[in-house]
Structure formats: structure tokens, C-alpha cells
Design brief:
- This protein has eleven helices and seven strands.
- It is of the alpha/beta class.
- It has a single domain, classed as Alpha-Beta Complex (Protein-Tyrosine Phosphatase, Chain A), CATH 3.90.190.10.
- The protein has a five-stranded mixed β-sheet with strand order 1-3-6-4-5, with helices on one face.
- Strand 4, helix 3 and strand 5 form a beta-alpha-beta unit.
- The radius of gyration is 17 Å and the shape is globular.
- The chain starts with a helix and ends with a strand.
Amino acid sequence: MEMDQEARHATPSAARHIAFERLHNFRDLGGYRAADGRVVAWGRLYRADSLGKLAGDDWKRFLDLGIRTVIDLRYPWEIDAKGRVPEAGRFTYANFSIEHRPYDQAEIDPALDPWRYLADRFAEVAEDGAAEIRQAIELIAEDPGPTVFHCTSGKDRTGLIAALVLTLLGVGEEQILADFALTELATDRLAADWRAAHPDRTLNWPSYGRAPAKIMELVLADLTTRHGSVRAYLTDRVGITETTATTLCTRLLTP
């Protein structure tokens, strides 16, 4: 299933998406280049939408990836309602609920600036969930992996952790924004899933499932304004130590 290193580097960014029938936003974070010239290794760190949807052939495909660590970023009540990764006991499984103030994206007022509104929600997560963000990043750094982290759609909470991890790896902002925006390839299927799950509701926000780069651009700018830089936010507010950052780079970066 996995391409060799040379082939992966030659493929377009859309090829990061690993095909599943029921999952729509499962991606490999390999291939991004750090400032020191090293590259994030393929097949070591994945981001995803809800693994509670895994079944049948999807489950077999997932097991073929050799994943050993699963980080679930959802609320416990979401896990109770939708289920966690099957056979969780076979993995190092951890639930770090980084969002503390739930909101319903389907009900966002269409009259609002949606990207500013969502960036403000990210800011809440970045402050409220600092302890859980630290725990998630420490586990990514310390556990042998391969590792996958996920929320419900693999978009916002997952997108924030991806951006922060890539920042610690020395990946530039342009690549971080591009990674965030790849969720746009899954938007239609995410919206279709919402409609199927809520046949008695109307999807009031027309941008449901969208993830334009502008959102993450605002998020990173906000963190820089408040903390001096995104890395300063990670060290001073979240509490990521230099040891953790070095371990993360050693584990995930390759020449």
C-alpha cells in the first residue's frame, strides 16, 4: 500500500490522502521539508477523521499501515456517541480532548465572516486546551509509533495539532497552510455525511466542512501576536520542552 520514498516525493499533495470507503480525510504527514533540509518521514505520522467509522475492508487497510499509537482529540461524549478506534486495546490509545467549548458548525450564522469566526474558535482551543495539546505532542514525540491523531472530521482540532507539530519540526508556514487546506478535498463527503446523520436538520452554514488556508493563516498570526511566535506559544504557554522538541525531530525527520 505504501509508495517508496522517491515515488512519494514525486506525487502531488492530493496523494497524501489514503483511500478508505468510510473515512474521508486520512492523510500521511510525510514529505514536508524542514528548514534544516531534513524531511518529515513517510509512514510515521498520520492525521484523520473519526476512526470510529472503521469497519470491514477499511479496518484491514488501517491495520496494514502498522499504526501502534492512536490519539483521539474528541470530547468523551463524542466517543461515547460515535465510538473509538476498534479494538483499542491493541494500540497505545489516548484521549486528549483539546477543545473545551463546544459549538455547532452547522449553525454558524451565514452572515458572519466564517474564517475569522473559526480562527477565534481555534484561539479558544489553543488557550483552553494547552495541557491536552502538550500531552498529545509529548505522546507523538515519545511513543515509537507509527501514530495517528484524529477528531471527528479531521479538520479543526486535528488541523491545529498538525500545524503545531509541523512548526516544531521546522516546517515553513507555506507548507503548513497547504496541509491544512487539503481537507478541502474531503469537504463534499464530510457535508454529505452530516446530512445523512441529521436527516431532520438543515445545514444552515453553507461553508460546512471547508478548510481554506486563510483560517490557519489567521490562527498562526493570532498566536504570533499574543505570544511572539508560534514556537514561543508552544514553549511558554503549552510547556513543550526543548527535549520534547528534539525527540520529535529525531523521530520524525529524515535526511
